[in-house]
Amino acid sequence: MASGPDYSGDGSGLTEILESLKTAGFDNQMAAREDGIMCFSCRQTNPAERFEVAQLRRTEGASDPGDMAAVAALTCPNCGARGAAVFRFGPEASPEDDEALRALTLRQ
Predict the structure, then answer these.
(1) How far apart are CA 86 and CA 3, in angstroms?
(2) Is 2 inside a domain boundary?
(3) Is residue 66 part of a domain?
(4) Is 1 domain-assigned?
């Protein structure tokens, strides 16, 4: 596990990042919700600040640089499930994605 969030854009595509995280054991899904991040394993939502962040990577769409996303490798504070969450950022970001991503990046 990384010592802290890695918010890097290494040119990897979204599918490639998700596959590498799955191989590393982050095989559950998580997503931003109005009141935090929901773990699909235990179906509980917690504030983003409660999740342990192993990696935080950004990507841009191959055909559209405006298609910006960040992928977080997270551990659920309730059940301990390790999973990945994809957050949009930039002009296409939802308020939920924007808030969750802001909270996760402030922890660096």
Answers:
(1) 21
(2) no
(3) yes
(4) no
pTM (whole model) above 0.85: no
pLDDT in tens, 71-93: 999 999 999 999 999 999 888 89
Q: In what order do the strands lie in the sheet with 52-60?
A: 7-8, 52-60, 68-75, 82-88, 28-33, 36-39, 45-46
Q: Which domain holds residue 25?
A: 7-106
Considering its fold, how many domains does the chain have in total?
A: 1
Check residue 4 and give its pLDDT: 42
Q: Is residue 75 part of a domain?
A: yes
How much of the chain is in helix, strand and coil states, percent to nearest 5?
Answer: 25, 35, 40
Cβ pair 36, 51 in contact under 8 A:
no
pLDDT of residue 75: 98
